[in-house]
Design goal:
The N and C termini lie far apart (about 65 Å). The protein is elongated. It has 22 helices and 8 strands. Helix 1 runs parallel beside helix 3, helix 4 packs across helix 10 and helix 5 runs antiparallel to helix 18. By secondary structure, it is an alpha/beta fold. About 60% of the residues lie in helices and about 5% in strands. Strands 4-3-5-6-7-8 form a 6-stranded mixed β-sheet. Strands 1-2 form a two-stranded antiparallel ribbon.
Length: about 550
C-alpha cells in the first residue's frame, strides 16, 4: 500500500536512534505549546484552556495522516485572530454562543479541508502569492499586538480596526495600572531577551512560571493585577457544541474556507521548509487531509481552529525531531497538563499572557521581507517587463492595509483578490524581448546591449503562453517594435508552451498586417502543442514554421 493511504507513515521503520531526539523535541515543544496554547485561545476570545483542548487531537490526528515528519499542528495566532473576527459578529455578545461557534468553526473548517483533500485541491494554496500572504500576516500580527497592549498595560480595550484600537491605547495611557504595566513589560522583556540570547530555553514557559510565582508571593491580584482565573481541570467533553442549529454551521462554510486557505498556506510552507532540510517531500493533498482531521478532532473536543505552526515546527526541528513521535509525546504531555497542572495557571497574570502573545507574534512582523520585496523591481526591469515598479511590494502592502483598515476577514478577501489580479495582470502582459545573436544563441538585447541585432530582421521572444488574455498585448508590442527598416519578424516560440485559437488568429492577423507593409512573419522553435494548434486552426494557410531561429533568419536571404 502507498504511504498516501498509511496511517502514521512517519513512524514506519522507526529506529531506536530516533527515540532520544524525538523525546527531547517533544519535551521542548510541550514547553512552548502550553503557554502559547493558552495565549492563542485568548486571541480567539475563548477560555484559555480551549487552546489545550485543541492541541491534543490536532497533534494526534495530524500525525496519523500528515506527510510531514516535523510539522507541529495546534492553535496559531493568525487563524485564532481570524476565528475571533469571524465569530464576533455572529455571537451577538453572548459568551456561551461565542465559544460554541468557535468550536463549530473548527468542525466546519475540518470538513472543508477534508473535502478539498478528497478533491485534490492542494494546489489552491498557490493562488495566494507569497507577498500577499506575507502582507496579510504582517497586518494580522500588528492587529494582534495592538489588541494585546491594553492587557499588557492595564488599560481599557477599545474595539474596532487596528487604528481605532491604537487610538484607544494612546488615549488610555493616562490610566495605566502601574502594577500591571510593570508585570507586563518585565514579562515581555524577559521573553524577548531569552528568545534572543538563550533560545534553547523555553522562555515563554519560564516567564509564565515566574509570573504565577510572583502573583502568589506578592498577592498582586489584590493590587489590581488581573489573572486568568479558574481553568477547568480534566479532559474536554466530546461531541458537537450544544445550542447551535444547522443554519449556524452552514453560515460558517464561507469563512471556514478562508481559514483553510490561510492555515493550509502557512502550514504547507513550514512543512516544505523542513522537508527540504531533511531530504524528503510532502504531499499537499495529504497535508490538507491532516489539517482537516486535526480541525475536526479539535472541534469534537471543545477546541478551536488549528493549523501548522512555523515557529513550533522550527522548535521541533531545531531540537532534533526525526518523526511525528515527538508530536505524539507533546499530545501526551498536554493531557497530563489538563489532568494535573491546570490549577497552577489560574494565577497567571493577564499581562504576562499578553507578553507571551506579543513575543510570539512580533516575529511575524517581517520587515526584512517587506524591504526585500521593495528592492525586487529596478526601474530598468520594470520598463522591460511592462509592469509597475515594485508590484510585489505593492501587493503585500495592499493585503496588509486591508487587514489594518477593514479587519481580518475583509483583509483576507482583499489579499486573495490581489493575488488573482496579480496573476491575471502578469499573464496578460508577458514580456516580449527583442533578441540578438551571441555565437549560436539568441539572447535578450536588454541584458546584452552591446550586441547588434540582425539588419532588417526583428527577432522576438514572448515569455509566456499565448492565449486570449494577452493576444492583443503581444500583437501591439510586436508591431510597436518594428520600424521602416524591418523586412521580417521572427517569433522564437520556445518560451511559449501553449497557444489557443484566439492567439493563433492574432498571429494570422499580424502576418496579414505585416504583409501589407512588405514584412514577413515567421515562427521558430515551436513546441508540440503550439505547432499542433497552429496547424489545426488554419491548415490551408499556416504560418511559416522553422526548427530554429537561425534557419528562419538565414532563409530570408533566399
Amino acid at each position: 500500500m502507498s504511504d498516501t493511504f498509511r496511517l502514521f507513515a512517519s513512524l514506519r521503520g522507526y529506529r531506536r536512534a530516533y527515540l532520544r531526539p524525538d523525546l527531547i523535541a517533544g519535551l521542548t515543544v510541550w514547553a512552548v505549546m502550553v503557554p502559547e496554547g493558552l495565549a492563542y485561545a485568548s486571541i480567539a476570545g475563548v477560555p484559555t484552556v480551549v487552546g489545550l483542548y485543541a492541541a491534543v487531537p490536532a497533534l494526534i490526528l495530524y500525525a496519523a495522516v500528515g506527510s510531514s515528519r516535523h510539522l507541529v499542528v495546534g492553535p496559531m495566532a493568525a487563524t485564532a485572530a481570524l476565528s475571533a473576527a469571524i465569530i464576533a459578529p455572529l455571537a451577538g455578545g453572548d459568551t456561551g454562543r461565542f465559544i460554541a461557534l468557535t468550536t463549530a468553526l473548527a468542525v466546519v473548517t475540518g470538513i472543508v479541508a477534508l473535502l478539498a483533500a478528497v478533491a485534490r485541491l492542494g494546489f489552491v494554496a498557490s493562488f495566494i502569492s507569497e507577498p500577499v500572504l506575507k502582507g496579510f500576516i504582517v497586518g494580522l500580527a500588528l492587529t494582534i499586538i495592538v489588541g494585546q497592549v491594553p492587557a499588557l498595560l492595564g488599560v481599557d480595550k477599545r474595539s474596532g480596526d487596528f487604528f481605532e484600537q491604537l487610538v484607544g491605547v494612546l488615549g488610555g495611557l493616562g490610566d495605566i495600572d502601574w502594577w500591571t504595566a510593570v508585570v507586563g513589560i518585565v514579562s515581555l522583556i524577559l521573553v524577548l531577551g531569552m528568545k534572543r540570547w538563550v533560545p534553547l530555553l523555553p522562555g515563554s514557559l519560564i516567564v509564565v512560571i515566574l509570573g504565577i510565582v510572583t502573583v502568589y508571593l506578592f498577592a498582586l491580584d489584590d493590587h489590581g493585577v488581573e489573572v486568568v482565573g479558574e481553568i477547568s481541570a480534566g479532559l474536554p467533553s466530546l461531541g458537537l457544541p450544544s445550542g447551535l442549529a444547522l443554519t449556524d454551521y452552514l453560515g460558517l462554510i464561507g469563512p471556514a474556507a478562508g481559514v483553510v486557505l490561510i492555515g493550509f498556506a502557512e502550514g504547507l510552507g513550514a512543512a516544505k521548509t523542513y522537508a527540504a532540510k531533511a531530504g524528503y517531500t510532502v504531499d499537499p493533498n495529504r497535508e490538507l487531509g491532516g489539517l482537516g482531521l486535526a480541525n475536526l478532532g479539535s472541534g469534537f473536543s471543545s477546541g478551536m481552529v488549528v493549523n501548522g505552526s512555523l515557529s513550533k515546527t522550527a522548535v521541533n526541528g531545531g531540537a532534533g525531531a526525526r518523526t511525528q513521535a515527538s508530536g505524539l509525546l507533546v499530545a501526551g504531555l498536554v493531557i497530563v497538563t489538563l489532568l494535573v497542572l491546570t490549577p497552577l495557571f489560574e494565577k497567571l497574570p493577564e499581562a504576562t499572557l499578553a507578553a507571551v502573545v506579543i513575543a510570539a507574534v512580533v516575529e511575524l512582523v517581517d520587515t526584512p521581507a517587506l524591504r526585500a520585496l521593495f528592492r525586487v523591481w529596478s526601474p530598468r526591469l520594470a520598463r522591460a517587463y511592462g509592469l509597475p515598479t515594485r508590484l510585489d511590494f505593492l501587493s503585500a502592502v495592499a493585503a496588509m492595509v486591508g487587514v489594518l483598515v477593514f479587519d481580518t476577514l475583509p483583509g483576507l478577501v482583499i489579499g486573495i483578490a490581489v493575488s488573482i489580479l496579480l496573476l491575471l495582470y502578469r499573464a496578460s502582459r508577458p514580456h516580449v524581448a527583442a533578441l540578438a545573436r551571441e555565437d549560436t544563441r539568441w539572447v535578450d538585447v536588454a541584458y546584452s546591449p552591446g550586441l547588434a541585432t540582425e539588419p532588417g530582421v526583428l527577432v522576438v521572444r514572448v515569455e509566456g503562453g499565448l492565449f486570449f488574455a494577452n493576444a492583443d498585448h503581444v500583437r501591439d508590442r510586436i508591431e510597436g517594435m518594428t520600424d521602416d527598416e524591418t523586412r521580417a519578424v521572427v517569433v522564437d516560440a520556445e518560451t511559449s508552451p501553449f497557444i489557443d485559437v484566439t492567439a493563433v488568429q492574432m498571429l494570422n492577423d499580424l502576418r496579414d498586417s505585416l504583409a501589407r507593409k512588405n514584412v514577413r512573419l515567421r515562427v521558430a522553435r515551436d513546441i508540440g502543442e503550439f505547432r499542433d494548434v497552429v496547424h489545426a486552426v488554419d491548415p490551408k494557410n499556416p504560418i511559416e514554421l522553422y526548427p530554429t531561429v537561425t534557419e528562419a533568419v538565414a532563409d530570408l536571404g533566399d
